[in-house]
Structure formats: C-alpha cells, structure tokens
Specification:
With 478 residues, this protein is of the alpha/beta class. 54% of the residues lie in helices and 9% in strands. The protein has helices at residues 4-18, 21-27, 50-59, 61-71, 87-97, 102-105, 147-158, 177-191, 202-214, 218-226, 243-258, 279-286, 298-312, 318-327, 332-348, 356-364, 374-377, 385-396, 400-404, 410-427, 431-437, 443-459, 461-474; strands at 33-37, 42-47, 77-82, 167-170, 197-201, 230-234, 262-267, 289-292. The longest helix has 18 residues, at 410-427. Bound molecules: adenosine-5'-diphosphate and magnesium ion. Magnesium ion (MG) binds at residues 177-178, 234-235.
C-alpha cells in the first residue's frame, strides 16, 4: 500500500492537468509532502518562498484543494511550510538547462585579441548603473493585469540569483516593463548598496559590443559584464538577427547564471515567439520565470489613473477620470500622456475651468479623429497662449488690446486668426478655450479663423513666412 507521502505525487499529476506547464513549474514543481495533521484534516506541504505561499493560496487554492481531495479525502485545510530549495538542487536544475561546457569553450567565433585592462569610453563607468530613480515599486500601481509580474519582481529582490533566474517579463508597449525593470534595480540599490547593478537597453548593449569589436576590446567587454551582480536588459527582442551579440551575450548569461547573479530581461514577446533568436537563448530565457503583463482592464485603468491624478495633485473629478479610463484602452503610457496634457493645460491657464468639452476634444486624439502625430509630441514648456499673443502682436506691430478687442481692421483680424491657429497647432487647445482666452469669442469664430489660415498656408507664402517666424520666436530661436 502506498505511503501517505506517495499520494502527493498523484496530486501533483492531477494539478498538471489543470494548469499550464509554466504555471505548474513555477508554483508547484518544488512542493513536497511534509505530514498530515489533526487526524488527516490538514496537509502540510512545502513551498519555496513566502511569495509562493501567498500566490498559490490566492490563485490556485481551489485547484489545489480539489486535487488534494481526490487523494486525501479528509483534508479540509492546507498548511504551507516555507523551505528554500537547497542550492545544490538549484545548481542541478540549472546545469540541466545548460548546454555542455564545450559549447562555451570551443567557440571560435569571437576573436579576443585585446588586453583586458583597457579603459573604454563607450562603456559607462562600472559604478554607473543607468537607473532612473523615478521608477519605483512605490509608484507602480499593482492591478490584476500586472500583479504576477510585480509580485515576482518584488520577490526576487530578497533571493537575488536564486529564486527565478532569469526573470523574463514580456508585454506589449507601454504596460510597465521598463518601469518594473528599473524598480528592481532601484530597490536593490537601496537594500544592497554594494551590488554592481546595470540597467541597459538591448540596443545600447548591441552598440557597445560593436564598438568593442572594432576596438578589439572584446575581452574587456566580457569582463565588464561578467562582473555584474544584477543585469537588467530592456527590450531583448532587439537581439533578433544580431548573431555576434547573441554569441557574446550567451556566454555572459551562462557565466552570470552559474555564479547565481540575477538576470532580468524584458521583451515585447514571450521567448518562444521571438524570431531571429536562436533556440539555445530561447531555452535560457524560458529556464527561469516567464511572466507577462496584460493590457489593463477598465478597472485597472481607473486605479492607475486615480493614483496618478493624486500624485500630480490634479483637480479632476471622478467623472472625468472615468471618461479617460473608458476612452483610452491602449496602454498606460497613453493614460499618462493625457494626464500630462491636462496638467499642462491647467498650468497654462489656471483661472479657466477645464471643461468636459475640452476633455472630449483631447480624448478624440486617441480615438483617431486627429491624425497628426506631431500634436502629441509638441513641447508646451515655453509656449503659452500669452506668449503666442505677444509674439503675434510683435510680428504685426499691433497692440494686445486691439487683438483681444473687437477691431475688424484687416491686419488685426489676420493677426488674430494666426494667433488662433498657433494656439490650436502648438498647444492643441480646443476652440472654446482659445475663444475664451482671446476676449471671450465664440468657438465657431475661432474654428473659422483656424480653417482660414490652414487654407492660406497651402499657397500664401507671406502667411507661411509669418508663421515660421512666429514659431522661431516662440521656440526662442530668434
Ligand atoms: P514598457 O516598457 O512596457 O513599454 P513603461 O515601463 O515604459 O512600459 O511604462 C510606460 C509608462 O507607464 C511609464 O511612464 C510608467 O511609469 C507607466 N506605468 C506603467 N505601468 C504602470 C503602473 N502599473 N503603475 C504606474 N505607472 C505605470
Ligand atoms: Mg520599455
């Protein structure tokens, strides 16, 4: 008759049928049976970390209880005992996923003629970690769409190089990969100040490697990266097709991994979908923990917006926040983009209420109604309706009071319309707001003026020159 402990293996087999292979491997592969308690009503099993315990209990309790009930029918409660996997076992696991050592030593594709001690300008000082302090765990809002990634990112800090190595985070753009990657670095810097941490976008890594090849400093390059304790590479998909970079990275990866140095990678796709990356690297990427971040649901977007609105001290009522969350379902970068624009608009004209109408016109950009992508990147730092007013008055040699007043004199009317056009084009303000700023004019007057200038711009060189000059003055180029 099988021992009580043996049934645990059957439980695990049963769980395998309910979970994806990566879920099973991540959460249950290391769990073992410990004992039964309270006449078989409690089962004690091991988990490798507190994070496992919490996550399993929250996400897989139902599945686990069902599988347990099949083989231990009296059990009504599961007790988790945290037992860190012995390092030797981890080493065995790692070596199973590594290719033979010969793979590394027989490699003749990289010529190393250089002297290792050279100082290189293209590699930042060893002490420079490239971390941006603005990305922290504190300001990363945890939602259902990113909770696994955020949880694992947090969890590896206490177990650097041991728990999940590498950690591979993937998602579409603007969903927080860089933020999390940098947060891992910043947090580590805080708790392990002596760690050699390096954040590096994959493209920079590629460029550094190319220069080191040209300068025949490949030894130095390898040595530089081999000395890192925590290597954070962003957007690893750019390694696609870069065979020589892949080669050197493969060796660096193996070296760091074998020395229990933590590696975290981000990508826009899961490892197996990366095209142009060789299988041996894909299998390395898959060998630790792979987590993804999903596009945020409405509820997630709401909580992210609320958090950001509070941090920016923006006076936005909940209805407006809701409208933004509803309209923008792409990614968090776009949510931030809208908030930044609102903040800029409120800063420019603090005395004018930010209306629903303005919000709608702003959101329409994201609904594809305005197609000029320039508008999204315009700098609003120095240009304001006030500076536009001054500039236009200067260009046309007229008084502010004329421009803001009711004069219909041709020169004044044209200047006014150019001012409208600039406010729309440079600041992307709505017609009603521009109208209110320029002496309380109706929004249709502004729209008409804007359209007229837009038309004149097609073939009236004088108008074109005036606008070019105005823009130069506004950007302080003359
Ligand atoms: P990715 O690298 O996936 O393209 P980023 O990390 O650059 O995305 O995120 C885009 C922007 O959204 C950044 O400014 C980042 O700070 C912000 N962001 C993303 N996710 C969150 C989150 N969960 N909480 C707060 N800000 C976030
Ligand atoms: Mg990024």
């Amino acid at each position: 008759m099988p021992a009580l402990k043996d049934y645990w293996l059957l439980v695990l087999e049963d769980l395998k049928t309910k979970l994806t292979p990566s879920q099973f491997k991540t959460w249950f592969a290391l769990s073992e049976f410990v004992e039964m308690q309270e006449s078989g009503r409690k089962i004690v099993i091991t988990v490798p970390s507190d994070f496992h315990k919490q996550y399993i209990d929250r996400r897989f309790r139902k599945e686990l209880l069902e599988s347990v009930a099949k083989y231990y029918p009296q059990v009504i409660h599961i007790v988790y005992k945290i037992v860190k996997p012995p390092e030797t076992e981890q080493k065995i696991q790692q070596s199973l996923t590594l290719e033979p050592a010969a793979d590394a030593t027989n490699d003749k594709s990289i010529e190393d003629n250089s002297e290792p001690e050279k100082i290189s300008t293209y590699l930042p000082k060893k002490s420079l970690n490239n971390l941006n302090p603005k990305y922290t765990f504190e300001n990363f809002v945890v939602t259902r769409s990113n909770e696994l990634a955020a949880g694992v990112a947090n969890a590896i800090i206490a177990e650097m190089g041991k728990l999940y190595n590498p950690l591979f985070i993937h998602s579409k753009v603007g969903l927080g990969k860089t933020h999390l990657l940098q947060a891992i670095g910043n947090k580590t810097l805080e708790v392990k100040p002596n760690y050699n941490i390096k954040y590096i976008p994959a493209e920079t890594f590629i460029n550094q490697w190319i220069i080191s090849l040209q300068k025949k400093e490949t030894n130095y390059f390898r040595e530089y990266y081999n000395s890192i304790d925590l290597l954070l590479i962003d957007d690893i998909q750019f390694f696609a097709g870069k065979e020589s970079t892949q080669e050197v990275f493969f060796h660096i990866f193996n070296y760091l991994h074998q020395n229990n140095k933590q590696i975290v990678l981000t990508s826009d796709k899961p490892p197996q979908e990366l095209i142009g990356i060789p299988e041996r690297l894909v299998s390395r990427f898959n060998s630790g923990m792979v987590v993804d971040i999903f596009p945020p649901e409405l509820e997630d977007r709401l909580s992210i917006l609320r958090d950001k609105v509070a941090r920016l001290n923006l006076l936005l009522d909940d209805q407006k926040i809701f409208k933004i969350a509803q309209a923008i379902n792409t990614n968090i970068r776009d949510l931030e983009g809208v908030l930044n624009k609102i903040q800029a608009r409120i800063r420019l004209m603090p005395h004018l209420e930010f209306t629903d109408q303005e919000l709608e016109s702003l959101l329409s950009v994201y609904q594809g109604q305005i197609t000029n992508p320039d508008l999204l990147t315009k700098s609003v730092d120095t240009v304001t309706p006030e500076t536009i007013l001054q500039t236009v008055c200067r260009l046309f040699s007229i008084d502010k009071s004329d421009l803001l007043g009711s004069s219909r004199e041709k020169n004044v009317a044209l200047a006014r319309q150019i001012a409208f056009w600039l406010c729309k084009h440079e600041l992307d303000l709505s017609y009603p707001v521009i109208g209110r700023f320029f002496g309380g004019r109706n929004h249709t007057t502004v729209m008409h003026g804007y359209n007229k200038i837009q038309e004149l711009l097609q073939n009236d060189h004088k108008i074109k020159d005036k606008i070019i000059l105005a823009k130069k003055i506004l950007s302080k180029q003359c």
